[in-house]
Amino acid sequence: MKSIASLEADMADGLLERLKQESIPFEVRKVTQASGLDYDDIMVGDGNYERACDVAEAWETARIAEAEKRSNRHCPTCGSSHWEHVGDSSFGGSIWKCKDCGNVFSK
């Protein structure tokens, strides 16, 4: 058995559902970190490891894309949610730069 992910229990449910849909057998092992946080270590058999990793990667990509869609902050030029804080204006607002189109804007 090999681990494909260690996730907080509430996050693991989505990946476990995807693995079920793909008929990939798995095992969940509860792990308590030194910090006291509980995690689910998701294990699959060696023969399913590569396919399970692909499923996990696709699930994570979809999860991030959904979170970005729900974000209410978007570049006013291209609509992207990939931007970074680059400073503060003299009026007290923040200045942001879009990582996709390079537009600089304030919020």
Task: Explain the overall architecture.
There is one protein chain. The protein has two helices and six strands. It has 107 residues and is of the alpha+beta class. The chain folds into two domains: 69 residues, Alpha-Beta Plaits; 36 residues. The protein is elongated. The chain starts with a strand and ends with a strand.
How are the SSEs placed, and which strands pair?
Blueprint: E1 2-8, H1 9-21, E2 26-32, E3 38-44, H2 49-70, E4 83-88, E5 94-98, E6 104-106
Antiparallel strand pairs: 1-3, 2-3, 4-5, 5-6
Core attributes:
single chain; 107 residues; alpha+beta; Alpha-Beta Plaits; 3-stranded antiparallel sheet; 6 strands; elongated
**What oligomeric arrangement do these chains adopt?**
single chain
Secondary structure class reads alpha+beta
Output the CATH class name of the largest domain: Alpha Beta
Strand content: 25-35%
Q: For the CA atoms, what is the radius of gyration? A: 19 Å
CATH architecture of the largest domain: 2-Layer Sandwich
Taken together, the total number of domains comes to 2
Q: Average pLDDT value?
A: 87
Provide the CATH topology of the largest domain.
Alpha-Beta Plaits
How many H/I helical runs? 2
Count of extended strands: 6
Shape assignment: elongated
With strands numbered from the N-terminus, the spatial order across the biggest sheet is: 1-3-2
Main sheet: strands, sense, barrel: 3 strands, antiparallel
Q: Regions with pLDDT < 50 over 5+ consecutive residues?
A: none
In which range does the helix fraction lie? 25-40%
Q: What string gives the helices and strands in order?
A: EHEEHEEE
Terminus-to-terminus distance: 48 Å
